[in-house]
Amino acid sequence: MRDISYLSLGLTFLLILAFILFSAWQRLGLAKDTFFSSLRGAIQLLAVGYVIAYVFVIENGWILAGVVSLMAGIATAVSAGRSKRVAGIWKLIATAIFVSVSVTLGLLLTFGAIEWSGKFVIPIGGMLVGQAMNNSSLFLERLLSDVRRNGLQIESNLALGARPREAIRGLVRQALIADSIPTIDSMKTLGLIYLPGMMAGLIVGGISPIIAVKYQMVVIFMIVFEFGLSSMILAFLAHRFLFNRNAQLKEC
Amino acid sequence: MIPLFELKNVSCRKKSPASGETAVFHSASLCINGDGIFVVMGPSGAGKSTLLRFLNRLEDPQEGEIFFHGKPIREIPVTQLRQRVGMLFQLPALPEKTVRDNLLFGPHLKGENPADSVLAELMRHVDLDPGLINRDAAHLSVGQQQRVSLARVLANKPEVLLLDEPTSSLDAETALKIEETIKRLVKEDGLKAVWVTHHADQADRLGKNRIRIEKGRFV
User: Fold this and answer.
1) Domain check: are A20 and A138 in the same one?
2) Contact (CB<8Å) A161/B58
3) Residues A3 and A91 in one domain
4) What are the residue ranges spanned by the domains of chain B?
5) What is the mean pLDDT of chain B?
6) Which residues, 6 or more positions from A22, have their beta carbon under 8 angstroms from its beta carbon?
7) Looking at the predicted structure, is the pLDDT value of residue B57 above 90?
8) Are residue A24 and residue A87 in the same domain, yes or no?
9) What is the pLDDT of residue B18?
10) Is A159 in contact with B87 (Cβ distance < 8 A)?
């Protein structure tokens, strides 16, 4: 397959610089974060490129579980970094990511959709961890912002004798709906507007389009299932981190 | 006679962005009897709202003890206490639901499902047109929303009503109407009320059973 020259690669980085300039011009406050995130992402990808050949041949279950756990741990730290003001929120995010990734991977292995080897478990596990991380970040971003804006409404509910879960039920529902929009929209446009990453990668790599479609369908089904599972965990447990044991709203 | 509420040596400090940590109450003690409307006066920031939040347990003091009918409120399950001690806030904050759904919120928590006729009666009780029952509460006028908030608390059949400057965001005419409604409820239904206000003329209209908070102490 044709290689990409470092010059071409460098030129594509200009696309990110264009966004950084736009962000600085509009004072969005995203320039620094975008620059360092893209640089970090590029370095991480290069590093993975060098080690992936070794990782993909791993068949030892403990090592594979360790690699996926490491990815889940990093994802937890990144997502929790967005909600630093809520003490212990990393426990909620870790639960959502670890449980949803483990259950989904376990089911895929049980159904025989993927094999217990590095070349399947690592990329699929990575996709699942990434999806669960995005889900946690989006859900909590929306929920915490709604909780800050609607403190009086929540306390009005508490003052009537509502338990914390009941006091924020409406806000949790709104956060779940908002959180589900990208997943549902991407399913609606599947194949019509864009060819999803895995399928495009397999076709470019020379795999039959039908086999690529089958893999992509597995990916989509697992992502929807995992989205539902991680959302359910977040929705059921979020109140434990927003209220104290006396059903009083904490600062967040 | 056992007071309705009793505060013993209550202390509370809060963080203020301007002055760092400030004492809201310093070893303050108070008895609130259950005779009609008990008025709490004081300047802004004196701790009036904090007092009501203590009584409903939306906050707890760092030191001291609060009693309800002679029992430490920390020993009463918090949701039970809040169902008995309702609270109406300065501003209405109703979810975007119909008036009916808002009124049913409290009863549903207790497994009750009052009929529309009961809700209509409740709405009339707070001078609210029962024809509004299917309207989105969040889209009513502020005065109507405050009446829905009052009816929402009353639907829970509380023993005591805590009122945190409930008329301060309303125009004079609507404020007087809400004031008259609550005075009538206290007189006719035997409801007990603790009413926070910083308006001396309103305090005069509400009665002589009152106390003033100044610099974290009851005077």
Assistant:
1) no
2) no
3) no
4) 35-50+77-213
5) 91
6) A28
7) yes
8) no
9) 62
10) yes
Is residue A179 located within the same domain as residue A131? yes
Q: What is the pLDDT of residue B16?
A: 67
Q: Which residues of B touch A243 (CB under 8 A)?
A: none
**Residue A61's pLDDT band (cuts 50, 70, 90):** confident
Chain B environment of A174 (Cβ under 8 Å): none
CB contact under 8 A, A246 and B56: no
> Which residues from A are below 8 Å from B when comparing CB atoms?
150, 152-153, 155-163, 166, 170, 246-249
Closest-CA residue of chain A to B104 = A160
Chain B residues touching A156 at Cβ < 8 A: 87, 89, 93-94, 149, 152
Q: Looking at the 3D structure of chain A, how many domains does it have? A: 2
User: Hey, of A160, A242, A248, which one would you mutate to test binding to chain B, going by the most B CBs within 10 A of its CB?
Assistant: A160
User: Which residue, chain included where needed, has tokens 């600085």?
Assistant: A24
**pLDDT score recorded for residue A1:** 65
Over residues B101-128, the pLDDT tens digits come to: 999 999 999 999 999 999 999 999 888 9
Check A248 against B57: CB less than 8 A apart.
Answer: yes
State whether A106 and A222 are in the same domain. yes
Residue A23 in this model has a pLDDT that exceeds 70: yes
At B151-185, the pLDDT tens digits run 999 999 999 999 999 998 888 888 888 899 889 98
Residues A82 and A50 in one domain: no
Average pLDDT on A177-198 reads: 78
Domain that holds residue A22: 1-55
Task: Tell me the sheet residues that pair with B161.
Answer: B86, B193
The answer on A79 and A180 residing in a single domain is yes
Tell me if A166 and B109 make a contact (CB, 8 A cut-off).
yes
Rg (CA), chain B: 17
Pairing outcome for strands B63-68 and B5-16: antiparallel
**b/e per residue A101-126 (b: at least 16 CB within 10 A):** bbebbeebeeeebbeeebbbbbbbbb
- Please indicate, yes or no, if residue A60 is contained in any of the structural domains: no
pLDDT category at A231 given cuts 50, 70, 90 is very high
CATH architecture under which domain B35-50+77-213 falls: 3-Layer(aba) Sandwich (3.40)
A137 falls within a domain: yes
Asked whether residue A112 falls in the same domain as residue A209, the answer is yes
